[in-house]
């Protein structure tokens, strides 16, 4: 039998009964079986910056600044930085840094690495790595939500404040988490590699070549040829127009109004390829503002013709490119075309303190006031909700690092608290 563990493969020598000769059994023998146990880590990293370090001093021992929640290996994690140290007996002599399990989990086995970045450019980073000594002690097991790995005496504070790790009152650290996963592989059979589907390319060729087109669209001063069956298969609006109860399957020309030729062309490209067209290529501009305007119009067209996937792709693109200059018009568009996810994202973006002032000064905000005045009250509600959450001290939220109070514990160990409130401590 063959087995693989942590990168090492073992071949077992089998003795043939009734024979003096030993033989090595391989997975190729029809009478044998073969499997591999593979232990590996699913790795992920998080970069955490603390701006205004001096303002965090004096919080008190046991109080920490938390990074935003990040996910690795199916579990949520957070970095806790204690400017006055984790335990009162250190008298704020040291800063403490821990990586905490922020989601429910039992016996989550993981490796960790904490790096305090040298900001002088010399590359002399301070690295504490669990990966380097995995063979000595194995992965660390975190028992419950709140279990932590790290160092209560991570760095002497007086040395830190005179070092190149602190620059312009700012600290930067990098965290890597490797969640251990175990899987078993059976024997691999002979396979034939299959090429990816080219259906989309073949169908798009029909549009590009105009082969067997049976409908012409007049859009402004431009015309576009297409295939009624393909349009009907993709869009319920075209299906009703050509083959519905009041449709006309014999029509050969349609005048499309209230849509720009470039937008209609982009919509046709999606219908035939199932991909969001390259808006920069269609507009001939690399400007984010120009591409955003086109995607906004394309979303409206998608909603008009019942192309739900295209509408969602446009929402995702607008979400990626949201800025203080475009968020107001995008918010109005989301309200008009019932894009709930995009609307929520725009409200949250506009409501953040660092964006709100610039958003209100934008031309798009004036349009928002005139076209969708009801959204102003929703924006105020989002601002109030964000302000309330900041006072409640929620641990999991974006846009800022949060101050919190750590569970009372002691020792240079990884600690946790179980659901009943009992302290659990594991020595590193």
UniProtKB/TrEMBL annotation:
GO BP annotations, alphabetical order: cellular response to salt stress; protein ubiquitination
Where is each MATH domain found? 43-177
Functional pathway: Protein modification; protein ubiquitination
Q: Report the SMART domains cross-referenced here.
A: BTB, MATH
InterPro entries for the chain: BACK_BPM_SPOP (IPR056423), BPM1-6 (IPR045005), BPM_C (IPR034090), BTB/POZ_dom (IPR000210), MATH/TRAF_dom (IPR002083), SKP1/BTB/POZ_sf (IPR011333), TRAF-like (IPR008974)
A Pfam family: BTB
> What range(s) does the BTB domain occupy?
213-276
- What family is this? Belongs to the Tdpoz family.
Function description: May act as a substrate-specific adapter of an E3 ubiquitin-protein ligase complex (CUL3-RBX1-BTB) which mediates the ubiquitination and subsequent proteasomal degradation of target proteins.
Full protein name = BTB/POZ domain
Q: Lineage of this protein's species? A: Eukaryota, Viridiplantae, Streptophyta, Embryophyta, Tracheophyta
